[in-house]
Amino acid sequence: MSYKILLMGPQGSGKGTQAEKLSERLGIPAFGMGQLLRDEIASGSDLGLKFSGILKAGELVSDEDAAEMLKRRLAKSDTQNGYILDGYPRNMSQYEAFNFDIPTHVLVIDVPRAESLKRLGGRLTCRGCGKVASIHDGLKVGDLCPCGSAWYQREDDTPEAITRRLEIYEHDTMPVVENYGKLVAHVDGLGSIEEVFARLLTALE
Ligand SMILES: [Zn+2]
């Protein structure tokens, strides 16, 4: 059985964590486009050099180039039993560019907007090492990370910025989910990491 999983969900749905857990359980790699982009640049490939130039110029990588990067990644031998793609395609333009492979499952972690706001609104980032924590862990702005630097709240973690991103998700990504039709399984994203993970595994059966 080969699993080609697209894992979708709004920010704060915990899909990055779940992608890693699925990867471990199923023995297939998990990746997001941001990570692939960094890897491609670090590799010094023709595409990586192109991306490096585009980003240095403050421009955006085109959907076609991003899709080409993904195509190359999916041609590597570690994906022969499948892969987990975290948060792609996130709009219809990317959906159309992703025309070289068909997923077996599209798993959508649903989290109500109020819950996403609560989770993300309490997010703290370390100025030193970039690690992320939460005020729900009993930490506050100015407390020190184990690395010795202070926690702060990023500007894009304000309620307004979070709401805007959640609206973009609903507006741009939900049409993609609809297009995948029967491949889609919605999973309740409320509860513990283990509870959500168990629901994802059930959805794969
Ligand atoms: Zn730190």
UniProtKB/TrEMBL annotation:
It catalyses: AMP + ATP = 2 ADP. Pathway: Purine metabolism; AMP biosynthesis via salvage pathway; AMP from ADP: step 1/1. Its EC number is 2.7.4.3. ATP binds at G12, S13, G14, K15, G16, T17, R123, G191. PANTHER family: NUCLEOTIDE KINASE (PTHR23359). Consists of three domains, a large central CORE domain and two small peripheral domains, NMPbind and LID, which undergo movements during catalysis. The LID domain closes over the site of phosphoryl transfer upon ATP binding. Assembling and dissambling the active center during each catalytic cycle provides an effective means to prevent ATP hydrolysis. Monomer. This is Adenylate kinase. It comes from Candidatus Uhrbacteria bacterium CG10_big_fil_rev_8_21_14_0_10_48_16. The gene is adk.
